[in-house]
Amino acid sequence: MLMKILFFAGLMSLCWWRKNIILLLLSMEMMLMILFLMISSMNFMYSSTNSMFMLVMMVIGSSIGISMMVAMSRLQNSTNSSSIWSLTFDKNVDFFGAIIFPKF
């Protein structure tokens, strides 16, 4: 029962902090850990299967987190996401999509 409450609290915080990238990823990581603990508390799987399942969940969670960070940094041109924006933005294209040629 406690795990379900914690999972729904993580889901609520995921929706609540959707504009702050770091807190959004932390709440998503909390949800993944609680989901793993709920699955591992059932005695249906062996420990190696649990470890492999946890590895798959963490890889999926981190790839979703990276894609969300890139998407949010492109949507919000704020100072919090300017470092991510500078890494993902193509410097040879201006704001309107025109190609900028380097000046020599």
TrEMBL record:
Catalysis performed (reactions): a ubiquinone + NADH + 5 H(+)(in) = a ubiquinol + NAD(+) + 4 H(+)(out)
Cellular location(s): Membrane
Chief site of localization: membrane
Gene Ontology molecular functions: NADH dehydrogenase (ubiquinone) activity
Gene3D superfamilies: 1.10.287.3510
Residue ranges that the Swiss-Prot or TrEMBL entry lists as coiled coil: none
The keyword Transmembrane belongs to this UniProt entry's keyword annotation: yes
Any Pfam family hit: Oxidored_q2
GO cellular component: membrane
Keyword DNA repair appears in the UniProt entry: no
Segments passing through the bilayer: 21-46, 52-72
Protein origin, superkingdom: Eukaryota
Its membrane topology: Multi-pass membrane protein
Extent of the signal sequence: none
InterPro entries: NUOK/Mnh_C1-like
Keyword terms: Membrane, Mitochondrion, NAD, Translocase, Transmembrane, Transmembrane helix
Family: Belongs to the complex I subunit 4L family.
Protein name: NADH-ubiquinone oxidoreductase chain 4L
Organism from which the protein derives: Tetragnatha cf. tincochacae DDC-2018
